[in-house]
Design goal:
This protein is mostly helical and 286 residues long. It is built from 14 helices and no strands. The longest helix has 42 residues. The chain starts with 19 loop residues before the first helix and ends in an 18-residue tail after the last helix.
Length: 286
């Protein structure tokens, strides 16, 4: 029995295998959210959007880490490994963060030491740099080949995705700690910069003329896909899906920003020094 998925070097089988470490991580996550919502009270439990987001985040974490996705991604297919990355680093973190009970977030303001710690860890520049470094480093062939060969290495790589993803997405999703200068326009630019690293990695994988990962090149073959073709699919997924996630998030921020700006613009109509359209039937003097 393995506690985490790693490359095994044996022929792939659809026979189910248990991974105790994955179950433990998922149970701890689910238990913490259950406790947090129970402690937050009935109003928080009635916020269905946040509860649904938290539930989806925990469920997708389980899917990404456990059999068969975790096993296939760890030692057989680079394309499935990329699906794991997209789930763990770019989809799960915003869901988990949005799923935090509102009273839990607001509680940070009543605990100065904890708020300072969270503020330091989730500074936009820290999240941006850390995320980009992790994205690039964890897709370097030598690093992937070294880490995927052991359960501890595979665990470390996937936790790096999750933790850096949470740090990256926190300033975008959570409004606590308060950052008055980090408004929606800044968030849009922040997300754009955060895509540069994954775009570069995706382009490299998509256009490489040879398999770059020994883990997947030398893995027992799965009928119907070559190592190079699998790598091209991985690059395409990273480029296409990653870009859709980021551009979709930027679009949401843009439209919400416009909704905030519109009432302010309307309020200026009629103010001194502002142009006022003439009422119907009234002609202004030439």
């Amino acid at each position: 029995m393995q506690w985490w998925c790693s490359a095994q070097g044996v022929a792939w089988s659809w026979t189910w295998r248990p991974y105790v470490g994955v179950w433990l991580i998922v149970l701890v996550m689910a238990g913490w959210y259950w406790w947090a919502y129970r402690r937050a009270g009935e109003p928080a439990r009635g916020d269905r959007r946040r509860v649904a987001a938290a539930s989806a985040g925990v469920l997708l974490t389980w899917i990404a880490f456990d059999w068969p996705v975790g096993a296939l991604g760890a030692g057989y297919l680079a394309s499935v490994h990329m699906v794991q990355f997209l789930l763990v680093a770019m989809i799960v973190p915003p869901l988990l963060l949005f799923g935090l009970p509102r009273p839990t977030l607001e509680g940070l303001t009543r605990r100065p030491a904890l708020e300072r710690t969270v503020r330091a860890i989730t500074q936009p520049i820290v999240g941006l740099v850390a995320f980009d470094i992790i994205v690039v480093t964890t897709h370097v062939p030598a690093v992937v080949d070294a880490l995927m060969s052991s359960q501890l290495g595979s665990f470390a790589l996937e936790m790096a995705w999750l933790v850096s993803g949470i740090a990256f997405w926190w300033p975008v999703v959570c409004d606590i700690p308060i950052r008055p200068r980090f408004g929606r326009p800044m968030k849009m630019g922040y997300l754009f910069l955060g895509t540069l690293a994954h775009t570069g990695v995706a382009t490299y994988l998509l256009y490489a003329t040879f398999p770059v990962y020994r883990t997947y090149e030398l893995a027992p073959p799965i009928p119907g896909i070559s190592a190079l073709g699998d790598q091209e699919v991985a690059g395409g997924l990273m480029l296409l899906v990653g870009t859709v996630i980021v551009l979709g998030s930027i679009s949401v921020l843009f439209f919400r920003w416009q909704q905030e700006v519109a009432p302010e613009s309307d309020a200026t109509i009629g103010a001194p020094g502002r142009f006022e359209a003439p009422a119907p039937g009234v002609q202004r003097d030439a």
